[in-house]
Every structure is written in C-alpha cells, then in structure tokens.
Amino acid sequence: MKKIAMFIIALAMSITANAQFEQGKVYxxxxxxxxxxxxxxxxxxxxxxxxxGGYFIMDNIMLKASAGVNYSGKxxxxxDFTLGLGGRYYILQNGLFLGANAKLIHSxxxxxxxxxxxxVGYAFFLSRTVTIEPSIYYDQSFxxxxxxxxxxxxxGIGVYLxxx
Length: 164
Description:
By secondary structure, this protein is mainly beta.
C-alpha cells in the first residue's frame, strides 16, 4: 500500500511540475546560502541571504540576476555584498536544474572578486507556483583559489509567475 501511495504522490508531483518552465514566465526567489555547510580555506562558518529574479527566454532556460549579503562568523571576518548574473537549465521538466552564474563580490575589507559558480539543484513544487529549491554549488575565486573558492549548499524558495 505504501508503494502505491508513493507512486501516486510522485505522479502528482511530476504532473504539477509539468509546463512550469515555459518561455515568458517570471521567477522570483530568495535563498539562504551556506548555513554552515559551505567550506573554504579562509572561513569555517558562512551564512548568506540572496534575492533572485529571472525570466524564461525559452522553454527550460532562465536568465537570472541576484543580489545578496554573506557573513562569516569571525569578529574580523568580512561581510560580502554580491551582485550576479547567470542562468539555469531545467532538465526534462522534472525540476532538476543546472546553473551557471558569475558574481561580483565586494567585501568590507576593501577587496573585490569575480566568482564564477556552478550549481545543481531541484525545484520541489509545493503548489502550482511555489517551490522549495535545495542545491549544491561551487564558487571559484579569481582572487585566491585556496582561501576564497568554496563548496556549499543553499535552500531557497521560488515563485514561478504565469505569463499573461
């Protein structure tokens, strides 16, 4: 009986996710990054908040822009402000996505860095338009690879607005 119930739930989720990633739709999201799960050579604790807006230029392909703030737990650690541009590709209309982004980081310790990022995640639909989006990412630092590049996890909430 549990197998049948799980099959029905999985089927309902796939039907709900179907056709959510159409050309012309708008995306609004917010995420919590790091959550003490990211790691780099210079910081052991990291917490960030990010706001994202996007637009589907074609089915399954979204261009997006983001802005965020990152904080490290040390007293003298920098607070970073980020601006980014990127894109996502949604695979097979099931919610699995691949992302590529580029972020400009400005630290309150008077340095700037450009960080390309790759990410893999999944959009779990809670309703027809609202998602929970866990993902893992890798940021590559051009400033100093060993200290500022990082692996991490993020959890976001996304809203997919219908086109008119």
